[in-house]
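Weekly sync notes, structure subgroup
Attendees: PM, AL, DS (notes)

Item 1: joint prediction request from the bench team. They want all two components modeled as one assembly rather than separately. Inputs as received:
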Amino acid sequence: MSSVQTKAQKQLAPAMLPWGKWGLRATALLYLGFIVALPLAAIIRNGLADGLSAFRDDVINPTAFAALKLTLIMAAIVTAINAVMGTLTAYVLVRYEFPGRRLFNAIVDMPFAIPTLVTGVMLVALYGPQRTLGAWLAAHGVQVIFATPGILLALLVITYPFVIRTVQPMLMGAERSEEEAAHTIGASKWTTFWRVVLPDISPGVITGSLLSFARALGEFGSIVVVAGNIPGRTLTAPVYIYGQIESQNQRGASAISIVLLALSFSLIVTVEWIQSRSRKSYVSR
Amino acid sequence: MYRVERMIHRRDGEDAEGTNRNASTRSQHSAALDSEKTSLNRSYRRRRSRLIEWALVALVVLYAAGLLVAPLVAIVLGAFAEGVGAVLREITSVDALSSLKLTLIMAIGATVINTAFGVLIAWVLVRDSFWGKRILSGLVDMPFALSPVVAGFMLILLFGRGGWLTSLTDALGIKVVFALPGILLATVFISLPFVIREVMPVLGQVSREQEDAAFTIGASGLQTFWHVTLPAIRWGLFYGVSLTFARAVGEIGAVLVVSGNVSRLTETSTIFIFRSLDDRNYVGANGMAVVLAGISFVILMVIEFLKKRAEES
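Output from the run, pasted for the record:
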């Protein structure tokens, strides 16, 4: 039966597929080439147009360098907080039942749906110097808006879902029996989590953290509203690039874009590598 | 709740068994003492783990409430503190309405384009195999990782003055940068990965046998796709489509750079907010922000509904 079927397929397949398959493959390649690869090539070409030393000068220009440094530091802090809070939130969402859990689970996706610029406006509405909370904080010496805490808050909001959404499915798929075994032989909850659960979900934690790092590096909409964009102090790399485009300094904009591009690209490669590795380890198990 | 309680009961049973086994090897007297001690210990441990559980739940819920819900409440209250009339006047102004219209048109256009090409690319990435497929897959993720400002800038370099494709678009008589085609291209770019990444896993689970069967009984490739493959991937597809739409509505960085912020004809709702903030028209900015937040809320409800359906099927 099956041999007949495969024979029929073999007869049919060459008649139908070659054109279709090659056509689809070519369309996908051309489309992605035009929409993604060509623009990337244009920016690299533009940034390196005047040679490597000009590129280096553009990157180590004090304002640009300070913007890059600030962006990296902010992204790193936010990623660390997300790794801890995201894992904890995913754990609570998967393992505990509590009233309002479904609603909470829906709210997690909110930063994906709300425009980042609106997130910025919302944060100003809450922490702005004229608002109750903002004024109270300012009276106690904490400036949030137009300062680095504002940048951190904005980034924490917009990257909130990443770790949760990568860890959640892994926790759901994790073997409960191992955990229970650890518990039965007397391991505390904390030890069980640290020694049994965390190794299982670590690919998810790392992937989610890297994604939120990448997202934090490139964020514009919320930061441009809350940061105040003071060069050397609260100006992040994407806002710096925007400023350079506005003032017609295309090469300077390209140079910092290339640095961000290289960072995002290496993050993507790392994420792909981790994902393919964890997939393989599941198969071999 | 039920599950956690059942778990605790089961664990208690196991604990009791363990103590019994231990006890049998010791003298009667100490065993009695022992079990008394462990039962005290056990109830203490259970109460403590319950306490930790509630503390953890409270911690994550309060964190989310402070981070996500409080700003949302603040902006809704803030917008209406100025008076409902003032807000309504701002968001029904000609500029505001035309920006909303443009946002919706661009978002729908980008969603349609990304849905058609997204399904095609997902199919190629899942079913086809050829040299360089991993590079293609990496390209798909680029818009996720790349700053939207850079995305818009790339389009300026391609289609702006002296760009690689400017002579071509000039010959065709199309103005891309600082015009609507540029905004559409920017929106397509930044929302490109969603449909692909949501369709790929569900497409991977579609049984090849059904497709082969349809094919064997004489259905064309397109018919097979339409009647067999598409129904099987529909929930993943809808989910990807709603994420695409949400992202397209909310885009600012790429669109702002490409539109050049020069003419009100190329002003989307997010650019409207951006310009209102610049003009210190806070009532208008907050009002439009509330409108966009409302749209996101509707999209979020749709996403939740789709997720539930996807889990059921």
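Discussion: Chain A touches chain B through 94 residues (CB under 8 Å).
Action: AL to compare against the crosslinking data before next sync.
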